[in-house]
Write a structure and sequence with these properties.
alpha/beta; Rossmann fold; GMP Synthetase, Chain A, domain 3; 5-stranded parallel sheet; 30 strands; binds adenosine-5'-triphosphate; binds magnesium ion
């Protein structure tokens, strides 16, 4: 057995305490209530989750048993029945929210639409009636390949209303990716649009679907929303315009109730580490996770305008653009396009125009905004903002401080939320107003979550050193399986240490019990007998004022085990010189110790990323080793980046 301990080299010590003002209004306003609820949630989870499920969800038939747990298969609230779409829509019509904005939308060209809960309910019912008219029923699968427009949410909710399992495929993916996913789950329908707007150009969606459906025998119909208006091919009988399909349909629909464990959606993970996996989420437990985190992690208030920048193609878009906010009766702001169109201040302009109060985005976006410069942020007031969030990767402390100071004006707490497609909802996170924040740490577990950092024998590694991150208890929004592949599900998540969910990440607890994710286990570096997480080294590199972004990988080395190869993107206007390479190496050694001094610094115009902006280190590993890029690259954002890196060899 290999030693799974990870040496921590970070020296981050800053602490940002919650303000009295925020604390006074927070939904969970004291450390004592966090401690009490957390203790209850892990000591008597069935009591805790049973109460939460009764309080936060509307049931058609109450559940009797909270959890049946036969590792690795969990059944939550099994005998209960509910309809997820009804929870997201109908129940708000009778609770005074009928005329409240559910979705405020701005398209990239500047078109603005607001849908109240009543209007959204009507549109979802019309689409549900239309899909039922096509013969879709409970348990069928539908693929959704849409731009970020309200109809994406309408399509998802219409499926949920019918018990049809949706799989949303990110609108930037190729026809190849559509084909694989549609064939894996045998979708009967694909719901798409002619195109969407991105940086002033049309992203063709229908034509990608056309290329995919030549090889997807399960697909009977393609439903097409007219968004961009360019000419598209429509296959007679198979392809149907959205507007024609819903035209004569009623805007009321009597929803059926489904069992708690009825499948809600399949979501194929982004693939930063390999072949996409069809993560399956079911109804009640998932919805509870998404709803309760809205309340406590985002401190949701009736008049909040919640802006999550994630595309609906990612789990963050499922849980925090659609299901979590709408189940909570919140107002969601949705934006279609690029953050730098027409100029790099679009996001800040949107926040001011629509009075967004909560912003939830990713470290990769934050680093990009930093690179574009403070001036774009400072053009706008941003005084509507009260809370900031981040998800997707470890955030380097410099980016955290920038987000806190320049965007949040030191007024808004930051919730650094660790979770995964598989976990369905936020798992480790500060609670705003309560948790003292440490830049770069996702801090403490949410209710019911028991994170453990373990060595190869299953023992907790001492505080301060790192190891593999596991979750020790089942939770309501956990994935139920990988679609059609129970065996891979068991192998991937439940076989590393019997009884524990294996997250695939490396992490450490610090002396205060705060959790720090140090990178993916697959990416851990091995230098002179020490295992080091990528995040700490990258964070040290990025803290150099000339550096915009960095990724570090290991290359086999006879002496050290692995040599550290750093790929570095410089800030605009900085010259790529040999001296700067040396300066960066010294900077890292000074910041975190000579053990982590990079052996090789390579300047790169861009880094290979997934479509959700995560760095794909496995590709950089292949490049650093001097070999060809062999693994799956279908989820890569831009292959040109890889070609450019290889050309520099
Ligand atoms: P795949 O599993 O196919 O490789 P992926 O892991 O990138 O794709 P997601 O489920 O979107 O797909 O991402 C979850 C991962 O993102 C986590 O396992 C972790 O590595 C990282 N992550 C998410 N949020 C945070 C955070 N707040 N801090 C540190 N890491 C985070
Ligand atoms: Mg993952």
């Amino acid at each position: 057995m290999t030693d799974q301990t990870i040496t921590s080299i970070s020296r981050e010590t800053r602490v940002v305490r919650p303000s009295a003002e925020f604390k006074a209004q927070a939904n969970l306003g004291s450390e004592a209530s966090y401690k009490r609820l957390y203790a209850e949630s892990v000591n008597t989870p069935e009591k805790f989750w049973g109460r939460q499920a009764r309080e936060h969800l509307t049931w058609r038939r109450p559940f009797k048993k909270v959890l049946k747990w036969k590792l690795p298969h969990a059944k939550w609230f099994e005998s209960g029945r509910l309809n997820v779409a009804e929870n997201c829509l109908d129940r708000h019509l009778t609770s005074g929210r009928a005329n409240k904005a559910a979705i405020i939308f701005e398209g990239e060209p500047g078109d603005v639409r607001t849908l109240t809960y009543r209007q959204l309910h009507g549109e979802v019912c019309r689409m549900a009636n239309a899909l039922a008219g096509l013969g879709l029923a409970k348990g069928d699968r539908a693929a959704i390949y849409m731009p970020m427009v309200p109809e994406a949410a309408i399509a998802m909710l219409a499926c949920a209303r019918l018990g049809v399992v949706h799989t949303v495929i990110f609108g930037g993916f190729s026809s190849e990716a559509i084909k694989d996913r549609v064939n894996d789950c045998k979708a009967r329908v694909i719901i798409t649009a002619d195109g969407g707007w991105r940086r002033g150009k049309i992203i063709e969606l229908k034509s990608s679907v056309d290329r995919a459906v030549t090889a997807t025998p399960s697909v009977e119909h393609v439903v097409v929303l007219k968004r961009t208006g360019q000419e598209v091919a429509m296959a007679e009988g198979r392809d149907l315009w959205w507007h024609d399909l819903v035209a004569a349909r009623s805007d009321s629909h009597k929803a059926q109730a489904f069992g708690s464990e009825h499948p809600l959606f399949i979501l194929y993970t982004s693939g930063s580490t390999g072949k996409p996996k069809g993560v399956l989420h079911t109804s009640a437990g998932y919805l509870l996770g998404a709803t309760i985190t809205m309340k406590y992690v985002f401190d949701l208030k009736e008049d909040d305008v919640f802006f999550c920048t994630a595309d609906v193609g990612w789990v963050t878009g499922h849980s925090y653009v659609v299901y979590g906010p709408l189940s909570s009766g919140a107002t969601v702001f949705m934006y279609e396009g690029a953050p730098n169109h027409p100029e790099p201040d679009r996001l800040w302009e949107l926040i001011d125009r629509h009075h967004a109060t909560i912003l939830y985005t990713a470290p990769t976006a934050i680093r990009t905004f930093m690179r574009w410069g403070d001036a774009y942020v400072n053009r706008h007031r941003l005084d509507s903002l009260r809370l900031l969030g981040t998800v997707g990767e470890p955030i380097n402390p410099e980016a955290w401080m920038w987000y806190y100071t320049v965007v949040g004006k030191k007024r808004c707490p930051i919730v650094d939320t660790w979770w995964q497609t598989e976990t369905g909802a936020i798992m480790v996170t500060p609670l705003p107003g309560i948790t003292p924040l440490k830049p770069g740490s996702c801090t403490r577990p949410f209710f019911g979550v028991v994170p453990r950092v373990l060595d190869e024998a299953g023992n907790d590694v001492p505080r301060g050193s790192g190891g593999r991150l596991f979750l020790a208890k089942p939770w309501p929004s956990m994935l139920r399986t990988l679609w059609g592949d129970d065996e891979r599900f068991r192998m991937q998540y439940w076989s590393e240490l019997p009884g524990y969910y294996f997250a695939g990440d490396g992490a450490r607890f610090d002396e205060d019990g705060y959790l720090w994710v140090v990178g993916r286990i697959d990416d851990v570096l091995n230098v002179s007998g020490h295992r080091i997480g990528t995040a700490e080294v990258e964070s040290a590199i990025v803290s150099h004022p000339s550096v915009a972004e960095a990724a570090v990988v290991g290359r086999l080395d006879d002496l050290k085990g692995q040599a550290l190869v750093c790929f570095v993107t410089l800030k605009n206007g900085v010259a790529a010189t040999a001296e700067l390479k040396e300066t960066i190496r010294e900077h890292v050694a000074r910041e975190i110790g000579s053990l982590a001094r990079p052996d090789d610094v390579r300047f790169a115009a861009g880094l290979p990323k997934t479509r959700s902006g995560k760095i794909m280190r496995r590709i950089l590993k292949e490049i650093a080793a001097g070999g060809a890029v062999k693994g799956d690259t279908t989820t890569l954002e831009d292959f040109n980046v890889v070609a450019a890196l290889q050309a520099e060899e």
